[in-house]
């Protein structure tokens, strides 16, 4: 059992540190860019996660009492539901108008073809070979 734990604990720590590093905003990573921390965690899978947890992330809250990630969450542009977003509704209306124009063109072409077919049948219906049957 101890042999298994010798491999599972560093593996679990590596996975935790890797996911924590990926979820950390770029401005909260200390000393190195975030991509460098990812490589350190993955290449040095026993020491890298410990270094990330100890020195890689800014874990002290600022003077305002909120962490930088909380500040970013509150100051992002607000998400608007599609049915309340006028730009999205306008794009749907434009697409609908294009689709209606294509449908009208298609119906006009279909009517024209039907009329041509009726004219051919009415005017030249007897042109085809007649098979009166020879017995």
TrEMBL record:
<feature type="domain" description="Cardiolipin synthase N-terminal">
    <location>
        <begin position="12"/>
        <end position="56"/>
    </location>
</feature>
<dbReference type="GO" id="GO:0005886">
    <property type="term" value="C:plasma membrane"/>
</dbReference>
<dbReference type="Pfam" id="PF13396">
    <property type="entry name" value="PLDc_N"/>
</dbReference>
<protein>
    <submittedName>
        <fullName>Phospholipase_D-nuclease N-terminal</fullName>
    </submittedName>
</protein>
<keyword id="KW-1133">Transmembrane helix</keyword>
<feature type="transmembrane region" description="Helical">
    <location>
        <begin position="35"/>
        <end position="55"/>
    </location>
</feature>
<keyword id="KW-0472">Membrane</keyword>
<keyword id="KW-1003">Cell membrane</keyword>
<feature type="region of interest" description="Disordered">
    <location>
        <begin position="115"/>
        <end position="135"/>
    </location>
</feature>
<feature type="region of interest" description="Disordered">
    <location>
        <begin position="57"/>
        <end position="79"/>
    </location>
</feature>
<dbReference type="InterPro" id="IPR027379">
    <property type="entry name" value="CLS_N"/>
</dbReference>
<keyword id="KW-0812">Transmembrane</keyword>
